Write the C-alpha cells for this entry.
Amino acid sequence: MTLATIKSASRAQLYFLKRFSFHAAKWNVNTCQKHILSEDDNNNNGLILPQSNKKCVKVAFIGLPNVGKSTLVNQLSRRSICPASAKVHTTMHKADAVYIENDTQIVFMDTPGLVSMREMKKYKLSKSFRDDPLISISEADVIGIIQDVTNVYTRHKISNFVIDSLQNKREDTSLLLILNKVDKIKKKTVLLDLTRLLTNSEIYPKFDDIFMISALTGDGIDDLRNYLLDSAKVTEWKYEDYDTNQNIESIIVETVRAKLMDALPFQMPYTIKLQMEQFGYNDDGGIDSAVLLICPKQSYVRTLLKRKGEKIKFIAFQVEKNLRSAFRKSVFVRLIVKQEEKK
C-alpha cells in the first residue's frame, strides 16, 4: 500500500482502524506510514521519533469505589475514554488510556475500585474486581492512591484494602497521595488536617508527593500531568498506534452502562443487560450504532420509555456527547429497550 493510497482513503476510517480497534486487520505499511496520525491526535506534532528518544511511564490509580479514578484518567488523557458515573462499580475491568506529549507516553491504567468479598457477592461482581487492580499495581511505575475528601467516613484513613494491595508493587515504584474533589471543601484547613493524618502515620506508606485536585473541574490536573511526564524514563512505548486497549464497541457499551447508572435509581442499572445490536461507519467516517437494553422487568421498560421516551433520548444524548469526546468524530447511538424473554 503506497502513501498516496493511504492519503486518498477516508481519514475517519484510517483514524478508527489505527487508533481504536485492536481487532482490526493490521495495515501493511512501512515505518513512516505507520505513524501517520489524524490532526487532532496526541501532542507529538506528527513527528516520527527514534526509539532512543522515546520515554514512557505506566500509571495506576487505586482507591475505594467512586473516588473518581475514571474521571481523573479522562482529564489527564484529555479524552473521555473511561466511562464514569456517580454510582459505584462503573468500571468493571482494567482499561488502559494513552496520552502522548512530544517524546513521552503516559499509559494510565484505570481499574475497578477495591472491594471486599462481601461486596463482590452482593453485587455479583466478576473476579476482575479482585485481580485487575493487583495486576495494574505490579506493572506500574507510578501509583496514585486517591482519597475522596468529601466522604467524611473514609477520607481520614487509607483503607486496609488499599494498603494490602500495595504488597504487589515494585520497590522502585513511586507512590503519590491524591486528594480528590477538593472543590467541594469550603474550609481548606480540612485538607491540611487530612494531609497531616495521612502522611504522619506509621501504618501508612511514605508518599513521594501529594496532590490536591478536582478531577471534575480540572483543578490541579496540569500539575499532576506534568509530574507524570517528568517521571517517564527512556524505554519503548507500550502502544505505538492506539489510544486505548479497548475496542470501540466495548467503549460504546460501557459508556451506555455508565449513563444508565446516572439516570436510573437503585439497582436498576446493575440488572439491565447490554448488547451491541448494530455497529458500522457512515459515509462521513463517523460511527452509527445501536445498543440493546434488555430489562428483567416490564416496569423497567416503562420507566425508560415513559413520556414518549424522554429519559432514553436523554441517555442517548449523553452517551453521544461522551463518545464524541473519546473518538473526536461524529457518533450516533440508538438505544433499543426490550423486556427479557422468560425461559
